[in-house]
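Workshop exercise sheet. Pairs work together: one partner reads the sequence aloud, the other fills in the structure field after running the prediction. Swap roles for the next sheet.
Pair: D.N. / O.F.
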Amino acid sequence: MKNRWNQRYSLNNIVILIFISFFALIFFLNNRKIVPEYFYWDTYTIRNVMAGLIIGDKNYKSAAIFYKMLGFNANSPIYREQFFSWLVFGLFLILVLYIAKESSLNLIQITFLSFFALMFGIYFAYISKDLIVFLFMTLGAYLVAKYRSILPLSIVIIVYATLFRSYWFLVLITFLLLYYAVQKNKSVVSVAIFSLLAIVIIVFAYNIINGSQMSVARTAVNDQRLNGQQANTMINNLLPNSSVFTDTLNCLYVFLSLFLPIDGLGSFNEIIYYFWIWGVTVSMLLRWKKIKRNHEWQQYLYLSSSFCLLLALVVIQSMFEPDIGSVFRHQLAIVPILILLLFQNSDAVSNGTDITKTRINETP
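Structure field:
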């Protein structure tokens, strides 16, 4: 039994992940001494809803019910939030161990995990809506790794979108569109084109159905933040919204600005964000090149599911996200899916099957 465990999982990885977990616990328990107060607005709202506050936002009501089912209430001590978030982070580290298997983590992967532990402590070490989506994505990543299919992930996203954030239906539709494109063409250019096409289709469809512009929501939120703490990371539309055409141009412009600092770097938060998005994007593109060069198609499911979900989320974010901080926080919630590619062991997933021939709605 011990030999089988040693053959399947690296002892070095276990030691490293325990150390990262210990560091994370210390940081999570002390994060409120460092993190600005406005990071906890979600937490305060959820606690108020648990206390009986009537609110129209389904997200907060669903989140309050979720945490009440886990034993939280409006007066739960802060350390319970911090310890619970650490348990969730621990599940994530177990997922890393499961995906990496016997392959030892390299320095880049360890650095990534350390960086993510820090970001998790800043953005997720308390009860929040984003901690819930992180839990769902952790489950989704495990199911993709276990069954080697995106079908279980799609089901997880449907459940989450139904119970919590409805816009995740749009994320799922875009994800499946991009996944189809990448399976057919195996080209970065085709995925980029389909991403831009998805923006155009969704913006026009929204205008036809609702008779209004998609990115108006961003303007409405930012008009109330002009003199606030988040003003320096606000995302601004390129043009005043007057038609579906200006709305489309605004969303396309924001999509590009989420990869390129077109408006400049107004804060340290923005520097961190672009460091993150470029680090992840470049890592995926390099892996894409390696897979195509070496014909390692057994890894293609992990590449396409990770890359397409990230792009799909950015596509939808380009339509309504008000600031870079929100963009970054929501992207961090899908890290469990991203590690499918960044941490998987190619030998462990190889079984002689060409995954690119698997249909979207089939489990091999």
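Discussion prompt: The chain has a mean pLDDT of 83. What would you look at next?
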